[in-house]
Structures are given as structure tokens and as C-alpha cells.
Automatic annotation (TrEMBL):
Designated name of the protein: DUF1835 domain-containing protein
Pfam families linked to this entry: DUF1835 (PF08874), DUF3658 (PF12395)
Record-annotated DUF1835 domain positions: 2-123
Positions of the DUF3658 domain: 156-254
Annotated signal sequence range: none
Amino acid sequence: MLHIVFQEADVSTLQKAIELDEKLNGEVWQIKDEFAVGPIADIYETEGYQNRRDWWKEVLENSPYTDAINIVDDKLTVHHLTQRIQDENEVCWIWMGQNTHDVCGYYWLMSQLKEHQGKIFVLYLNNLPFINEKGQLFYPNNLFEIQPKEFLKAKKLARPISLSEFEVDPDEWKKLCNENAIIRTLEGGKKIVGRSEDYYDAALLNLLNTESQKLSKLLHSFFTKTKIQTGDVFLVWRIKKLIEQNKIVMQGDWSKGWKDITLSLANYKQSEFYTTEM
């Protein structure tokens, strides 16, 4: 059995669950790209793949994750997966939580696996209650939020991806690829909606004023005060764009990394930016 997850933190969480139940025994592989953002036109073709890599190089520049572009080779992971799944005794379980990252990764992956229908299982843990460490009921968005022992109940949800899903879901993903929006958000179930690249800008601007604050503080405020599910590296890329547009004033040197960057709102009235509850 192979297990597929889409976030690094999910790997160790699932591995701990496997230790508790030998029936789950198998390797845990991760699809590492973040398909919820960035260009995806012709994603399975050489040109589209290279366009996406070039975009990520720009986004990752001067970030703490500069080397990430060199360790992400999901195409090779899929190649190894298709080789392994040809074994008549091998099956693959795709795990995903109720978040844009996992669902977009699922679409990208399963669209390449139709010929293995019947051997590809999905476990989508959406709108399901689990028990947290305090014994309280909660609804997780991500797999890594779930206690390992709770996965022993979740495994009962494993089901083969149906033939009809292998027809419908790749078509849905193809529409998103043709649309080629820079941001994609989850609107419930498996419904993904494309958004313009400035979709999060107002939320960022509303957390700034004319007094300087550290970039790290801005990012912390963003993730604690909004319900938006996206990565810090994408937000910093947007901040750079807002600096270019003279909406944000920056002090510091990007080449020295993020830690010394301070930001403030340009000489605008904050009321010019609407308050978002995303």
C-alpha cells in the first residue's frame, strides 16, 4: 500500500498513525507542489511545466525556501507511483483534508491515474468531526491537525475513485488549467474557484498603517486574523508587487532575507481598502 499526502506535516502524522495499525502499513509519499497558486496552463506539457517552475523561481527569490524549487519533482513521484501500482497487489490511498492545497493537488494527481481505476482510493476528510488532544470535538482543515489515533477511524472512509469521478474531476481540473488564474480557493466540497492575483491584497493592506512593522509580524497577523489558506511565500510575493505599485513602503534589503524587512502603508487613507472577512 502507498499513501499519498500533499503537505509535509501530514507525512509524519500519517506515519505515526500507521505505527498504531499494521493494516495501514505502507510508504507515505508527498506531492510537494502547491497547485492552489501559480500558473497551471498546459501543466502536463513541457512548456507549461517550465513556465510554472520559472514563476516559482521568481516567487521564492530571497525567501527562506529558495532551494525548494530544486527538491520538488512531482512528475518523478507520479512516474514511480505508476510503476508501483502495476503490481497486482499494490493499491494507492490518496489522503486529503478540506483545504485548497490538498484538493488542487488531488485534481492534479488523479487526472494522471485513470488507467489504474480500481486501485486508486481516496479519503477526503471534509466536514467530519474528530477529537482533539483536549477531548473536544472539532472539524480539521488539515490532516496534520488530527491525532494519529483518530486516523484509525478515518481509514474506514477509504473508497476507490469511481469511473465517473475519473471522467468528471479531470474535466473540472482542465477548466481550471484553461482559466489559468493565479489563485484558486476551495468553496466547499471539491469546488475550486479561480481568483485574480490581487485577491488577498486588501487583507494585507488592512493590516498595515503608516507606522513601520516587521514583515514577520505582518505575516503572523495575517494568519491569525484571517481565514485565508495560502502560504507565506505567496503573500510576500504579493507584498513585493504592492511595493512596486507604491501602496506599501519598504525598508530593508530583500537580498538579506525577510528578517530585516519592515513595511508600512503608503500615504493612503486606510478606508480606501475594504475590510475583508476571507
